[in-house]
């Protein structure tokens, strides 16, 4: 029997508090989040607004430290994995410089990540092709619609072909054709052995696209399992409504 492979993503007892006012009162965003995801899978991290999804992704992306617990990517501490270029991340509100052309913006990011000029051109070309932005790559970002900006945000998360891709609300603002393109892109990443963790309120797509589902409520994991266990629970919509707070 072959030994079990280490998870590509591991969250162990993550706790995160935020100060809410001048008195120093604190709000607990994460109350001991635990889950582990194998490589080459697409996972949906879902839950109500304020359940801790974005905070979890920021910790996994190495952008925020938990107050307690530990986050690992590919066996490394999350911050170390990000420094090594193993993690791509799309925030829920990507900040994009409107005065730049889309291709110039991606080239700058690729060069800042340490890629040579030739490697940067190749990485940018692949990211633009994957997101369907190639024909409009020479346009300034401030001419882009919300959906096009979102696609550009996904493109920057894919630069350098990271092994783990973290996407916070990636289909927000996308039209049906772009959502279909995105679904195909995510499945192709998994087929190439990449691991994708995404948040979304679009439950039908999560149920169709994701191999694994983690459901959060009030900063805790209340369900975690593969797609077939979601079906056994009556489907994702029913599971969500029955197990989360109104």
What do we call the CATH topology of the domain at 9-94 and 162-243? Rossmann fold
Q: Total number of β-strand segments? A: 10
Could you state the order of secondary-structure elements as H and E?
EEEHEEHEHHHEHEHEEHH
Give average pLDDT, whole number.
92
Which percent bin holds the helix content? Answer: 25-40%
Strand content: 25-35%
CATH superfamily of the domain at 9-94 and 162-243: P-loop containing nucleotide triphosphate hydrolases
Number of H- or I-type helical stretches: 9
- CATH architecture group name of the domain at 9-94 and 162-243: 3-Layer(aba) Sandwich
The end-to-end distance, rounded to whole angstroms, is 46 Å
Radius of gyration: 18 Å
Strand order of the largest sheet: 6-7-8-3-9-10
Which residue ranges are poorly predicted, with pLDDT under 50 across at least 5 consecutive positions? none
CATH class of the domain at 9-94 and 162-243: Alpha Beta
Please describe the biggest sheet, giving its number of strands, its sense, and whether it closes into a barrel: 6 strands, mixed
Shape: globular
């Amino acid at each position: 029997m072959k030994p079990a492979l280490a998870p590509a993503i591991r969250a162990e007892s993550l706790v995160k508090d935020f100060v809410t006012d001048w008195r120093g009162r604190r709000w607990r965003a994460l109350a001991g989040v635990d889950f582990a995801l194998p490589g080459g899978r697409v996972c949906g991290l879902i839950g109500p607004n304020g359940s801790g999804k974005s905070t979890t992704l920021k910790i996994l992306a190495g952008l925020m430290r938990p107050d307690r617990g530990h986050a690992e990517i590919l066996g490394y501490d999350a911050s170390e994995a990000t420094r090594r270029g193993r993690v791509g991340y799309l925030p829920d509100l990507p900040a994009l410089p409107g005065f730049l052309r889309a291709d110039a913006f991606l080239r700058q990011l690729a060069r800042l990540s340490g890629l040579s000029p030739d490697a940067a051109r190749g990485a940018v070309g692949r990211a633009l092709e994957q997101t369907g932005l190639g024909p409009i790559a020479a346009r300034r970002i401030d001419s882009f619609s919300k959906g096009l900006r979102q696609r550009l945000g996904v493109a920057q998360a894919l630069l350098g072909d990271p092994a783990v891709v973290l996407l916070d609300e990636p289909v927000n603002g996308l039209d049906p054709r772009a959502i279909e393109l995105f679904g195909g892109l995510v499945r192709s990443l998994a087929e190439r052995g990449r691991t994708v963790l995404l948040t979304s309120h679009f439950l039908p797509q999560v149920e169709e696209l994701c191999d694994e589902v983690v459901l959060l409520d009030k900063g805790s994991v209340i369900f975690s399992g593969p797609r077939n266990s979601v079906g056994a629970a009556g489907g994702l919509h029913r599971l969500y409504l029955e197990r989360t707070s109104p």
